[in-house]
Specification:
This protein is an alpha+beta fold. The protein is 46% helix and 8% strand. It has helices at 22-26, 66-72, 79-92, 100-108, 119-129, 134-148, 162-166, 170-178, 182-194, 206-214, 221-230, 242-251, 267-278, 282-291, 293-296, and strands spanning 9-12, 35-37, 40-45, 48-55, 58-62. A hairpin with a 2-residue loop joins strand 2 and strand 3. It binds a DNA duplex (13 and 12 nucleotides) through helix 5, helix 6, helix 8, helix 11 and helix 12.
Length: 308
DNA sequence: ATCCAGGTACCCA
DNA sequence: TGGGTACATGGA
């Protein structure tokens, strides 16, 4: 194989940055552009081509400063403390005992971190995600980047800017396999282009931020919540997709029959149940459930014989 | 071939 | 407010 770049840097995870699992983090459906070649992940962060690989408690990386690496992967977040918080919240609502399902989910997802990705890329990515599976989403975003993104080193393209997408022909966007989402992408790009501060973190705050995002075409509660969680790191936010709905419905049937009829649970029902049940890091819990979706649903793979 | 996927906009009661 | 439906496309 070709020689590896000369000046790789290392980051020791050992003191206070564990657990961390690079594979789980980059392959859990929160971000769609990273590619793995051998044991090396390549992607673009802050406009630079970055390569990272993990060797036990060490990250070997290039193309990014240590500070930016820490920020992107949220390496200073006390992930063990996050898990403890979720576990304690579950216990406080479970007088009979603890949640054995979630102990398995914790173990399977050990080291998965929610990263802090660029809001614009995250927004377009999750507009692209609607009513699609992850391989299709990846292809779609890859086509958008190769069609409209500025070419960089190593054959990689930058994520296209709002300006470029805003002035692109709808047919060109559509030819990136975006289907009916093409107009959403185009119109959202125009909104951001015309109001460059729209996605500024100080303007995307709390419930107002959610409403702001949902005012964009193609952005409903699910996409907005994904952006709030994956780009702005509002860890209490719980996006509800068909997998999460299926898992919650199956393992956590409605527990408050009083007052409420037995109508179908709405998006907000599921989301707020998770916020109550998992606590201030409910978004993390959600992502761990999503990562374990194949094992937790019948349609994922083979159904687990010991479950019913 | 048929069904489904990290949903949303739109319409109708 | 809540429930149905069209929407483009690819993966399984």
């Amino acid at each position: 194989m070709g020689m590896v770049p000369v000046r790789m840097k290392t980051f020791d995870l050992n003191p206070g940055h564990l657990p961390f699992d690079l594979d789980k983090t980059l392959d859990c459906g929160q971000v769609f552009r990273w590619e793995k070649e051998g044991d090396e992940w390549r992607g673009i962060v802050n406009g630079s081509l970055v390569s990272v690989r993990q060797k036990e408690a060490c990250l070997i990386y290039d193309g990014i400063t240590e500070d930016d690496l820490i920020a992107y992967f949220n390496l200073n977040l006390d992930l063990a403390g996050v898990i403890t918080s979720i576990r304690d919240t579950i216990s406080s609502g479970n007088p009979c005992g603890r949640d054995t399902l979630f102990e398995n989910v914790f173990q399977a997802g050990n080291g998965l971190r929610i990263i802090r990705q660029d809001p614009w890329e995250c927004l377009i990515s999750f507009i692209c995600s609607q009513n699609s599976n992850i391989p299709a989403i990846k292809k779609r975003i890859s086509l958008l980047c190769s069609s409209f993104g500025r070419a960089g080193s190593g054959g990689y393209h930058h994520f296209p800017s709002p300006e470029i997408i805003a002035q692109a022909d709808l047919s060109a966007i559509c030819s990136c396999k975006t289907g009916y989402r093409a107009s959403y992408i185009s119109e959202t790009a125009r909104r951001i282009r015309d109001e460059p501060d729209f996605l500024s973190p100080v303007r995307i705050t709390g419930e107002h931020g959610r409403e702001q995002l949902m005012s964009l075409p193609g952005v409903g509660p699910k996409v907005a919540d994904c952006v709030l969680l994956f780009a702005y790191n509002y860890y209490q936010v719980v996006p509800v997709d068909v997998w999460i709905r299926s898992i919650i419905t199956r393992y956590y049937p409605r527990d408050d029959p009083e007052g409420s009829t037995n109508r179908k649970r709405t998006y907000e029902d599921i989301s707020s149940f998770c916020q109550n049940y998992f606590g201030s890091y409910a978004g993390y819990a959600q992502q761990l459930l999503f990562a374990a979706r194949s094992e937790l649903t019948d349609t994922g793979k083979e159904p687990d014989p010991k479950e019913t």
